[in-house]
From TrEMBL, chains A, B:
Ranges where the STAS domain occurs: 501-623
Major localization listed first in the record, in broad terms: membrane
Residue ranges of the TM segments: 111-131, 151-172, 184-202, 231-248, 260-281, 319-341, 353-371, 391-409, 414-431, 451-473
Gene3D superfamilies xref list: STAS domain (3.30.750.24)
Taxonomic superkingdom: Eukaryota
Keyword check for Transmembrane: yes
Record protein name field: STAS domain-containing protein
Native source organism of the sequence: Vanilla planifolia (Vanilla)
Length: 637, 637
């Protein structure tokens, strides 16, 4: 006994008050990045100012802004404007709204982001996926052809709802929701969306007039081939030519990264050259439809036109929520990956607030849903931007375009836009990544394919939801069936490891060491009971053959992060079951949150404090002694 | 280097083929108890027979049935019949069907269970919760008063659907679904249901004629007090008297457990005495309503009356699914807990098949939803039953009752039934358990209260669903925010443990040891990245004050049971982030399934094989050597 008491044993006395546990749980759930930690040393007023400046980042970077930064930002701002014009016009066509609204959307929202946004490289703009999602949800109910004014205000209303949703998620720090979009889901969803958007471009590429409002492969193919008489070879020819140019410049960028700007301005060149060709050749009369009239002037105010009393409000809300969530996910992901490259910090929830405000203001000023698109932000980063000032520069450039140049774009051929979108979408299909997923993780591959096939064959919501549902199912399965491993002694060491992984490791006769998986929750409690009972039985059969009895089961609990009421109940039942078979249950290194519950539920008293150990080695030593003593005691009696 | 290569290192070569991983995952998910493991040594034909006998347990226990078993089973069978009569009549009233159907339901289903059921102590019968659930779902659409025939056939149809659902769950081995009903949910749900059912008994206790068809507290209270003129003091007096007797005998059982049979037959006595009183006092004329006419004879066949083409089929299906699921959960839980006491094995999926067949046959023979109720099964166990033969004995007794005695029960006063139900329900409210939950686990307490309050104030479905949703949310939160701990060296040992739990443990300057939680999935990947970066920053600040640099982070991964594609991506990003800060990332003891993915994704090559260790001690030694060597190399260059 002397020796045993000298052994360090599992700490069963440390206890945290409920309030502090709750506080740390809430902090880890909602403030994983602990944004205010650096302000803790300041005076109250200084702290209040720091926190205010934290939420309005322009106060932070603006106060130390230098002329050298400005030069870089101007260059980057001009570069992204050259991308913003063709993208704005193209994606507006995808949303079935006037192209000028695409240009408006690169004026007001970037200004808002420059004030509230924290990423120094993110460039604001519309994206193909959310544009199509908005259009495909709304145009079933409000026809953009029949009542274009009502349609466009419904789109603004959806944008407003998306903004409020994003703002609310940010304020309540629900960035955790975005975590449930896995990489695999995003890969599959983006790939599927790219295919669907390219299919939509067949209308522009072939110069067709009638087209389905559905997005799935089968409907689109049927629509394309049932109107073969509308196909125009002039459009197709021009489209293929543009596409080749766009793809060649991308190839150039891949080969010679410092020529990225050639690739960045090609879309604008395609628009300009296409416009000149269409103007000179009187394209409209020769099978090359063009964009049509564009008004000069700044964004009109649209706040009083939002359609809250419309009969389609439920569709509008749904479209706003789904598209807003998607836009958020893309923006956050872009912000995070650029921050990683620049080794900066990001606060997802703060970004959400910035996106939310940007879309609310946008919906008041004739802009539709914007976020931080991958392509534009990457160009911004490559062009050497230093601060969100590059967004301001883009807004100023766009102001000039809107006031002076907008009418010129009326000659833009639709086929040029189709070619620009198609080229952009081709870059989103990551075949290599899908192949890697198949090799690496079959379940992730299924998650990815669920998103892809759902988007391509049904619609974007179904693709997204089925993929997320599969991912969540996987998480639940993990919780319901935590792994248990039998451990053995690795030759030449005092270490105990999984016998399946280390086949040379040896077990000790009469002793079974089981590593329990985490967490021990209601969903896994009855499984674990069955599984432990099976392990015990198998071990008993083995040891019996060798002439021993199974005397001891060590439960190695280092990895068990949490246990709930059902889990505690399971431990009681397992202990009772093992006691009936004369097997001792012993716990190794239960963690703090587990120990708290073991003590509170009196499990420690039922099993006995002396059967809780800090390590396997100690448990083997300690329990041998205790078993021996119990035996001696029996013999004496 | 010599020394390092002698150290045992993490096994990175062991690989399992995908098919075997999949097989073991599927087995753990669907066959956690591995029911066929004992047959593996037999010949093919012997094995086929064993498997057949496994699914038809009567072949197993019937072949070794002995006369001594029979004596015990007859005694138990008669005891449970004495409970089955009053319970059958009472719960049938709760379902708004004729009392005789309650008696039918204790005839056919027990015979089916005796053939396919594997629990030796489970007694088949109707339960209060699923009776009320069926009634409250269906009577909103089909009125039991206006069209009683249609109503009763709709109930049979719901029973059929419940049976098919149970059978399907069993065949596809989806017992895992039942695992998602936690103990806390069941405690809250049963308590809430007990309250709601007692409220319904106010009708019978007060002898009222009009009553609400809703079940929530507020509707019932309004209904009771708005019809105060219907209250009958004779009923109330008799009801209270019966209730006192019933509660006293329960108290007797608690004090003197071997007198359990007094408690078991009291309900029958109450029915008989109540009937005699009502008959002698002409109760019906004096404010004591009675059950009314009951036909003599066996169950009529109802298979051709099932209502599949009714306009209420969607309600019927929903009622069948929810009630079937609940009944299943109760039956499985009863089977499991009795098996635990008797140290037998249970196979949840096999039980589901038995329940499903029993309800399908039941719906064909004028029985409604049955399962293995807690109360009846406990009496069966206490009465010393040995095999499912006790169910056969009960069925035979019920046959005699139906053929000979049924008409006698027409005098049973409704208030006697109300008292029996009320007394039974009082036993289901576990105040003690709720108090324990509050002490042990605040979240489990919330889960329990969600079920309780949902059932009492809204309805049974809402209570059940909100409680399960909360439990699932908890599981998802666990997956999204796995715990990370900083480890330190426990004084006087070579062990490294959580510094929060072991405050005396010491850290090593320049080295941070982090224990990562499980699993590393998409939902936790970006959280972990932020958290690790925060740990590293805090440690850097600490070590800088002491004049050191943070050189090394050890990720202790023993507890990480699974990692997915997003998790692997996170590791790459963390490694890159740390490399930029000149900090070495080192992995300790990654498990088999993690290693497989680390290798497949080339992470091992990026980090370097030499930075994967089997234990912390070895990592400290090994990485010191490697860092030293790298430094020497630099100096030489």
């Amino acid at each position: 006994m002397e020796k045993q008491s000298k052994l360090p044993s599992a700490n069963l006395t440390k206890r945290r008050p409920f309030s502090s546990t709750l506080k740390s749980r809430l902090k880890d759930t909602f403030f994983p990045d602990d944004p205010f930690r650096s302000f803790s040393g300041e005076s109250p007023s200084g702290r209040a100012w720091s926190i205010f400046a934290y939420f309005v980042p322009i106060l932070e970077w603006g106060s130390s802004y230098q002329l050298s930064h400005f030069a870089s930002d101007v260059l980057a701002g001009i570069t992204i404007t050259s991308l913003a014009i063709p993208q704005g016009i193209s994606y507006a066509k995808l949303t079935d709204v006037s192209p000028i609204i695409g240009l408006y959307s690169s004026f007001a929202p970037p200004l808002v982001y420059a004030v509230f946004g924290s990423s120094s490289s993110l460039a604001v703009g519309t994206t193909a996926a959310s544009s199509l999602l908005l259009a495909s949800s709304i145009r079933d109910r409000v026809s953009p052809e029949a009542d274009s004014e009502k349609y466009v205000y419904t789109v603004f209303t959806a944008t407003f709802i998306a903004g409020v949703f994003q703002l609310a998620l940010g304020i309540f720090r629900l960035g955790i929701l975005v975590d449930f979009l896995s990489r695999s889901t995003i890969t599959g969803f983006m790939g599927g969306t790219a295919v669907v958007i390219m299919l939509q471009q067949l209308k522009g590429m072939l110069g067709m007039e009638h087209f389905t409002s559905k997005t799935d492969l089968i409907s689109v193919m049927r629509s394309v081939f049932s109107n073969r008489d509308e196909w125009k070879w002039q459009s197709a020819l021009l489209g293929v030519a543009f596409l080749v140019v766009l793809l060649l410049t991308r190839r150039l960028k891949e080969k010679v990264p410092r020529l990225f700007w050639v690739n960045a301005i090609t879309p604008l060149l395609v628009v300009v050259i296409g416009g000149v060709i269409a103007f000179l050749a009187k394209g409209e009369e020769h099978g090359i439809p063009v964009v049509g009239d564009l008004k000069k002037g700044l964004n009109p105010i649209s706040i009083s036109e939002l359609q809250f009393n419309s009969p389609y409000i439920s569709v509008t809300v749904k479209a706003g929520l789904v598209a807003g969530f998607l836009a958020l996910a893309e923006g956050i992901a872009v912000g995070r990956s650029l921050a990683l490259v620049k080794n900066e910090k990001t606060d997802g929830s703060k970004e959400m607030i910035a996106f939310g405000l940007m879309n609310i203001v946008g919906s008041f000023t004739s802009c539709y849903l914007t976020t931080g698109p991958f392509s534009k932000s990457a160009v911004n980063y490559n062009a050497g931007c230093r601060t969100p000032m590059s967004n301001v520069v883009m807004a100023v450039c766009m102001l000039l375009v809107l006031l002076l140049l907008a009418p010129l774009f009326k000659h833009t051929p639709l086929v040029a836009l189709a070619a620009i979108i198609t080229a952009a979408m081709l870059g989103l299909i990551e075949v290599h990544e899908v192949r890697r997923l198949f090799k690496l993780d079959k379940f992730d591959f299924c998650v990815c394919m669920a998103a892809f096939l759902g988007v391509v064959f049904v619609n974007m919501e179904v693709g997204l939801i089925s993929s997320v549902a599969l991912s969540v199912l996987r998480s639940l399965l993990h919780v319901a069936r935590p792994a248990t491993h039998k451990l053995g002694n690795v030759a030449g060491t005092e270490l105990y490891r999984d016998v399946e992984q280390y086949p040379d490791s040896t077990t000790i006769p009469g002793v079974l060491i089981l590593q329990l998986g985490s967490p021990i929750y209601f969903a896994s409690a009855s499984y674990l009971k069955e599984r432990i009972s099976r392990w015990a039985e198998e071990e008993e059969n083995c040891t019996k053959e060798e002439g021993h009895d199974l005397q001891l089961i060590l439960f190695e609990m280092s990895g068990v992060a949490a246990i709930d009421n059902s889990g505690i109940g399971m431990l009681f039942e397992v202990h009772r079951m093992l006691s009936k078979r004369n097997i001792r249950a012993t716990l190794i290194n239960p963690g703090l949150s587990v120990v708290e519950k073991l003590v509170a539920s009196d499990f420690v008293d039922v099993v006995g404090k002396e059967w809780m150990f800090l390590s396997i080695g100690e448990a083997l030593l300690g329990s041998r002694l205790a078993l021996q003593e119990a035996k001696n005691h029996e013999e004496q009696v």
